[in-house]
Specification:
This protein is mostly helical. It has 4 helices and no strands. Helix content is 85%, strand content 0%. The mean pLDDT is 89.
Length: 95
C-alpha cells in the first residue's frame, strides 16, 4: 500500500511538472550557464524543499481542518488567484 501511494504521488508530481515554467526556467539556466549538473542539483534541492514544506503544511491542515474542506479551499484559492490575474491583465498591471 505504501508503494502505491509513493508511485501515485511520484506520477502526479512528475506529470504536473512537465513543461511548466519551473522546468523551462531550469532548462534555460542550464543552457545559459553550461553547468547542467549544478543547475540540476539546485533545482532538485528547491523542489525537494518546496515538497517538504507542502507535506508539513498538508499534515498540519489534516490535523486541524475537516478533510472535505481541503479540496474546496484549494479550489477557491485557484479561482481567486485566477480572477486576480485576469483582473490585473485588463488593468495593464503586473500579474
Amino acid at each position: 500500500m505504501e508503494l502505491r501511494l509513493f508511485f501515485s504521488t511520484f506520477g502526479l508530481v512528475f506529470l504536473a511538472e512537465l513543461g511548466d515554467k519551473t522546468q523551462l526556467a531550469t532548462a534555460g539556466l542550464a543552457a545559459e550557464s553550461g553547468r547542467r549538473w549544478l543547475v540540476f542539483a539546485a533545482s532538485a534541492a528547491a523542489l525537494v524543499t518546496s515538497s517538504l514544506l507542502a507535506s508539513f503544511v498538508g499534515a498540519w491542515l489534516h490535523s486541524r481542518v475537516e478533510a472535505t474542506l481541503i479540496p474546496r479551499i484549494g479550489g477557491a484559492l485557484f479561482v481567486i488567484i485566477g480572477a486576480w490575474m485576469i483582473y490585473s491583465s485588463f488593468r495593464g498591471g503586473p500579474a
